[in-house]
Amino acid sequence: MPFLKSYKLLHAKTIIYFNLHTMNNSPVILFDGVCNLCNGSVQFVIKHDKAGLFKFASLQSEAGQQLLKKYQLPATNFNSFVLIQDEKAYTKSTAALMVAKQLTGVVKSLYAFSIIPTFIRDGVYNFIAKNRYSWFGKKDSCMIPSANIEARFLK
Fold first, then answer.
1. Rounded mean pLDDT of the chain?
2. Is 84 helix (H, G, I), strand (E, B) or coil?
3. What is the pLDDT of residue 25?
4. CA 60 to CA 153: how far, in whole Å?
5. What is the pTM of this model?
6. 40 CB contacts (<8 Å, ≥6 apart)?
7. How many structural domains does the chain have?
8. If we measure between CA atoms, which residue out of 18, 89, 82, 92 comes closest to residue 56?
9. Measured distance CA(58)–CA(105) in Å, rounded
10. Residue 6 resides in a domain
C-alpha cells in the first residue's frame, strides 16, 4: 500500500524533526555510549544539573549521528565529548569546560582552566581519551537510561 508507506515515512520524519527540535532548544551533550568514563561523566552532569538544562545522546545513536553530520564532525571517531549549544559544536576540553561552567557546585570553578591554551588542554584530553577503555573499561552496548531520566536522552 503506497499510502501506508508514505504515512510511515512521514511519521519517521516527524519523530526525527521532533528530536532535532528538542535538541535546538536545549544544549545537547554527545558522548561515547559504551565508555564507562563517559557514562560516569553523564551521570555526574545529571547529578549537578539541577535545572535539567542538558539533553544527552550517545555518539552512536541516530540523534547523535544526525548532529555529528549537521556540524560536520566525524561520525565514526568516538574519541570526543561534544557539546551542541546555541547552534555551535564544542569538542574535547572546550566542551567539557563549557558544561562545567553551567553546572551547580564547586565543579563550576573548573571553567578557570579555559585560560590554558586549547592545544595543551586538548593534548591532555586526547591522552585520557586514548586510554579510557583500558583505564575505565567499556560496555558491550550503550547505556540505557533509567525511567526518571529517560526524557533527557535523545534517540
1. 82
2. strand
3. 79
4. 13
5. 0.80
6. 136
7. 1
8. 82
9. 25
10. no
Residue type at position 60: Q
Burial (CB < 10 A; 0-12, 13-18, 19+), residue 17, is: exposed
* CATH code, 46: 3.40.30
Asked if residue 141 belongs to a domain, the reply is yes
| pLDDT of residue 12 exceeding 60 | no
In terms of Cα–Cα distance, which of 59, 83, 69, 81 is closest to 142? 59
* 67-92 mean pLDDT: 91
Cell numbers standing for residue 91: 569538542
The domain containing residue 123 runs over which residues?
Answer: 16-152
Q: Name the residue type at position 77.
A: N
> Which region, left, alpha or beta, applies to residue 21 given φ > 0 means left and ψ of -120 to 50 means alpha?
alpha
Alpha-helical regions (H) of the chain: 2-25, 36-48, 62-70, 92-101, 118-136
